[in-house]
Amino acid sequence: MILFDTLYIHNSGGKIILDLIIEFITKNKLQKNFFFLVDSRYSNTKILEFQHVVLRNKENLRKQFYIENHFKFSKICCLANVPLPINTKTPSLIYFHNDLLLDLKGTHFSFIKKVIFHLKRIYIYKKINKDHEWAVQTNLMKAKLSNKFNIKNDQILVYPIFKEESISTENLKNKNTFLFVSNFNSHKNFRNLIIAFLNVAEQTNRIITLELTINQKTFLKNITTISTPKNLKINFHGTLNKKELNKLYERSEYLIYPSLKESFGLPLVEAVQFNCKVIASDLPYVHEIIQPSLTFNPYSHKDISKIINLALESKNLKKSRIKIKNKLPEMIDYLIKNNDEKK
To answer: Which residues are 281's β-sheet partners?
Structure first.
């Protein structure tokens, strides 16, 4: 039996990956091959179809689970970046999907938060076993992981995970509507984004809408109170479920993505699937997974303004396209291949 250790996943991008893994396994009726260790905060009723253990996300509890159970598994896959808490000869794959644990440049986190990331990085480094294999979502992350933790390239597999779908939404788009799918972490670059839209609104008579997946209270707490021009409408949606988010993708003409760093950037892929024109940071993580319609310098609100105006004025803006393929089936096949369940 194969263990999926997901103890540090309960929300955000990690939860999306875990949900897709569980969906794929259940759809293909492979439940008998897998055992899940899950965070007590994780919510997905399909987990009940698997053998599983629920724990609080504490490393001491995780370690105790491994001490008592590791010999029961023929393979182990750890999601959420952290290697096994004990030494074992069990073949293991560590799925690493947090760029912040490799580099904090551009984040502007508090000193305390930076110290926490630094301590996590040290812990991960100490737990690295030369026999472990690793997996990431892009070749860019592969290079970063290899350089930061001195892991050999041939020990790092590239398995992008996302839901492949193509949705026809051409007749649903609201003109001049921009969507930014993001939480409010500092590296998401909200301040430059808002300044840019204020500048654009002052320079045009067009009615412009900006859809944000944060709540207004969070926004006002972190952004100095602004006077919004009448022709700029900012809508705050807070945390959305998948169905609600898809409706936003359907209605939005553009996805705008000013983030300064991402390990993957799932909204970029999802937006293209919903026929949004993607306007994004001119940074490697963007070009690794999609070909955007337009790019800007995310460190310059003036350049963001310039590119927004260009998008609004362009009658035949090129479509964005996805450059990668979902490799979830390949990853599951890798885990199951030659797997002899321990009795």
So the answer is: 296
DSSP state of 164: -
Per-residue pLDDT of the chain (343 residues; tens, 9 = 90+): 999 999 999 888 889 899 999 999 999 999 999 999 999 999 899 999 999 999 999 999 999 999 999 999 999 999 988 999 999 889 999 999 888 888 887 777 888 988 988 899 899 999 998 888 999 999 999 999 999 999 999 999 999 999 887 776 667 889 999 999 998 888 899 999 999 999 999 988 899 999 999 888 877 776 765 677 889 999 999 888 888 999 999 999 999 999 999 989 999 999 999 999 999 999 999 999 999 999 999 999 999 999 999 999 988 899 999 999 999 999 999 999 855 444 3
DSSP letter assigned to residue 6: E
| Domains of the chain by residue range | 2-162+326-336, 174-322
Element containing residue 272 per DSSP (H, E): helix 266-273
Q: Give me the DSSP letters along 44-113.
A: -GGGGGSEEEEE-S-HHHHHHHHHHHGGG-SEEEE-SS---SS---S-EEEE---GGGT--TT----HHH
What are the angstrom distances between the C-alpha of 48 and each of 10, 29, 36, 54, 146?
Answer: 16, 14, 10, 11, 36
Residue 78 in tokens: 């750890």
> 79 CB contacts (<8 Å, ≥6 apart)?
4, 5, 6, 8, 9, 14, 17, 18, 21, 95, 97
What phi and psi values does residue 91 have, to the nearest 5 degrees?
-55, 130
CATH code of the region 2-162+326-336: 3.40.50.2000
Tokens 């794959």 belong to residue: 93
Question: What's domain 174-322's superfamily in CATH?
Answer: Glycogen Phosphorylase B; (3.40.50.2000)
Domains 2-162+326-336 and 174-322 share a fold: yes
